[in-house]
Design the sequence.
């Protein structure tokens, strides 16, 4: 079934944190039994935490081959002429390496599926290999096979340096995390990415989370737009932030109401500020006399019968707080000056 996928960065209950690979994880393993069929064999699988048509799910992407990059001390033109032979030689070398342990060999004897190179200076190139298993990127496996091949080209002692991997004991090591990062780079996975899946195969839910399978070739990235990116920085549901942070809904006001408040602000004089401060002090004193403490934090509870207090004495004629104690922007006057005493600058 066709569907729209958007990466999901927040965890659901019961999900483990994937660290740097979030929201994608890579593993070379088996499909779930429902989709394995009779000829079960290991293959690269990317688990993508995402929303499918708005609902949280996990999509297993099949057929993706991660990329590993090397810097080699061979001229670009010389290396490009050997791309076809390089792929065959690397696959043959790796398969021969596992001859004594056939259980570790790939069933189809394919370890590298594509080779590409780009110039990296006058006498060096960047070699990108699309592989099946991150475990093959080891100094005595893929790196050794690559070094032997380049030696056969007459480039004895040339530089073969791994460029992609995770830092480990002072050097790079290619891991499943690196492979997951390769997937995110290939599909441009970020907060505003939208993917279209042509043939999404559902399977029974796992712990209440929908699970799907899809081939990597059936995923397409929708070009990013400025409007979609900016939408992530706008609050389309008013009050959600306040409810999340303060566990209560705070009031919001229209631009017209705030404009009227600004007009009144321009008319305030010293006497209005003095009345405003005196009303604050009166309510704090009332709280102290009646044991309502801390008095400055519960000023909204002072004199509920309005025997002594009066909202009309505030600068704008309304209280600078709501009945629940939250600030009321329509009743708070501007600060008349910048405080420069030592305590204000701490």
Sequence:
């Amino acid at each position: 079934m066709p569907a729209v996928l958007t990466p999901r960065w927040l965890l659901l209950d019961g999900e483990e944190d994937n660290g740097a690979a979030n929201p994608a994880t890579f593993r070379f393993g088996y499909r779930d039994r429902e989709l394995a069929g009779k000829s079960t064999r290991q293959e690269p699988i990317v688990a993508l935490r995402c929303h499918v048509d708005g609902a949280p799910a996990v999509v297993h992407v099949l057929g993706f081959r991660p990329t590993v990059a090397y810097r080699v001390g061979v001229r670009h033109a010389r290396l490009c002429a050997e791309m076809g032979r390089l792929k065959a030689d690397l696959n043959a070398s790796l398969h021969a390496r596992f001859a004594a342990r056939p259980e570790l060999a790939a069933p189809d004897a394919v370890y590298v599926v594509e080779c590409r190179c780009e110039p990296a200076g006058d006498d060096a190139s960047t070699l990108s290999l699309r592989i099946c298993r991150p475990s093959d990127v080891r100094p005595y496996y893929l790196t050794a096979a690559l070094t032997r091949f380049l030696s056969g080209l007459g480039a004895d002692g040339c530089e073969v340096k791994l460029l992609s991997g995770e830092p480990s004991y002072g050097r790079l090591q290619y891991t499943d995390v690196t492979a997951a990062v390769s997937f995110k780079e290939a599909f441009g996975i970020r907060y505003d990415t939208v993917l279209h899946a042509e043939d999404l195969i559902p399977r029974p839910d796992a712990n209440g989370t929908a699970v799907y399978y899809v081939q990597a070739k059936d995923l397409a990235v929708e070009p990013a737009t400025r409007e979609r990116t900016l939408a992530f920085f706008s609050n389309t549901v008013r009050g959600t932030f306040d409810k999340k942070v303060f566990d209560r809904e705070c009031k919001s006001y229209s631009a017209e109401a705030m404009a009227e408040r600004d007009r009144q602000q321009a008319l305030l004089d010293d006497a209005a500020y003095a009345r405003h401060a005196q009303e604050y002090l009166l309510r704090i004193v009332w709280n102290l006399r009646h044991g309502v403490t801390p008095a400055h934090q519960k000023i909204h509870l002072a004199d509920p019968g309005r025997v002594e207090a009066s909202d009309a004495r505030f600068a704008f004629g309304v209280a600078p707080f709501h009945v629940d104690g939250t600030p009321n922007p329509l009743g708070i006057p501007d600060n008349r000056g910048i405080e420069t005493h030592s305590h204000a600058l701490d």
In short: The CA atoms of residues 16 and 93 lie 38 Å apart. The chain has three domains: 3-64+181-227, 67-173, 255-345. The two ends are 60 Å apart (CA to CA). The longest strand covers residues 43-52.
